[in-house]
């Protein structure tokens, strides 16, 4: 569907040039809900603007359905955008906003009004066709923006942090709404966000970005359970990142040892690291807390405190090396107690720094 | 509680003392300023309705000076020339100012952009008499070279000095306006001119109307440049008034001046009405 090949984008010239994207390659499958996730300044919005045509790539090319579109102006691309602040035309009614794309494409009047009606139904704003956009609430404006971008039936819908202006409750509702719209229309969605919860909840695939590069692409499960780099592990949820020693590789597994423990096999993305100090990701919910003397314990530490969160308790434990980790358990050990930790080794992930 | 109470009084005293109307002299000063601004105009208007040749001694209300003024063919001719020149200058200068504003806010970063903005605004800082003399000598050369004469030169001169006045509010409005609207239009398949016609222009209209209004008023009002450029038979209303008061102020001049004020106020009111309608 969308293929970005070695796309580089620089702003400015000469010594003051800033590189926003550095040789980014990406494949967005047709009909998928694809999310670009990363902190602000990681280049995700720049990538979106390159796909929309608001910026032209400094190097590399962008293709849509095999056709190179990287050099075309935005009005020549079958791609529509939902802007962060919606950018609804304030001097037009809701209906004319939604019909604007088709109007510019010189579609017959009858077709435009039929599509506008269909879109108003799709976003459940049937009664608001004649309203001015400034008479709508934030959530309603959001729906108009969606309807306006979907009305011309683009091949790709780009969404630039569209939920960030909404309050928490509305945002949760719109997440479901967006999934429903994507499924109903079958249009490929490219969604930009810095909110990992949003990304995990909505996406078919996520590309995690940092510093102008793509760190990892995968399904939400892959990104969550097998983060490949320290950045991804750190950015997605509250993973423990624990130092360990890499002894070598066995097949597609890595043999590692935590300080004071025995060697175990952990998951590794690729056998590229040299033996020595590495970091390993351990999800808090995959840790079993045991007696300090238990021989199965791979890690040892002191309980700092624990807090009850309903389904269980979250314990904070300081490991012997000084690293602080969190573990989710049913029955917390008392504060100050020496404990042993047994992580589920099938969920251990060796990280690339 | 003990700590909170003095704090609250302090706060109250602070806001109380900042209330403008309680400031000493505020009311008196305001009235004085208003009086200085509008009393002369009020006196002028009042005496235009005086049934007497004097502009200082009131006798009786009448419209005779308006009859005289409107019956005076020279006044009618001057008014017509003023309106022709002002409308032409307003139309042309507003179009040029709009294009300049678009270029300097939407044209990206080009070399000499700040210089261009400064050059457009500079005529506002140059003493008008200097511009007038410069225009006079420049136009004399051009007139001689081209052999063209007529009211076109006066219109051209007015157009030129109206541009910076029209440019300011239009550029201010454009600079305030997010370019996301234009991006959204382009995203929705609008070619550049379509985006301009359907999105930029309607959103810019309040700025354009303000600019046009300023240009119209400035042109209608101009004396110095007009005095030097206008040829025979090109007497504008301000020039006519100026010519008349050389022979002393008569109530007829008051009446013509009142008509001029009326024209200006009508133009301002029209602009406000149009802007409100758009909202």
Task: Describe the overall structure.
The complex is a heterodimer of chains A (353) and B (279). Chain A has helices at 44-52, 94-104, 109-122, 138-150, 168-185, 196-202, 220-225, 230-235; strands spanning 2-11, 18-28, 33-37, 59-64, 67-68, 79-82, 156-160, 188-193, 205-210, 213-218, 240-250, 253-257, 263-268, 276-282, 287-291, 299-308, 313-319, 324-329, 338-343, 349-351. Chain A is α+β, with helices and mostly antiparallel strands and 353 residues long. Chain A has a 6-stranded mixed β-sheet with strand order 6-7-8-3-9-10, sandwiched between helices. In chain A, strand 9 (205-210) and strand 10 (213-218) form a beta hairpin. In chain A, helix 2 (94-104) crosses helix 3 (109-122), helix 2 packs parallel to helix 4 and helix 3 (109-122) packs across helix 4. Chain A is elongated. Chain A starts with a strand and ends with a strand. With 279 residues, chain B is mainly alpha-helical. Chain B is 77% helix and 0% strand. Chain B is built from 12 helices and no strands. Chain B is globular, with a radius of gyration of 25 Å.
Short summary:
Chain A has 353 residues and is α+β, with helices and mostly antiparallel strands. Chain A is 24% helix and 36% strand. Chain A starts with a strand and ends with a strand.
H and E order of chain A? EEEHEEEHHHEHEHEEHHEEEEEEEEEE
How helical, in percent, are the residues of chain B? over 70%
Order of helices and strands of chain B: HHHHHHHHHHHH
Q: What is the average per-residue confidence, as pLDDT of chain A, rounded to a whole number?
A: 89
Main sheet properties of chain B: none
Multimerization status:
heterodimer
Write down the CATH topology of the largest domain in chain B. MetI-like fold
- Helix/strand-derived category of chain A reads alpha+beta
Q: What is the alpha-carbon Rg of chain B in Å?
A: 25 Å
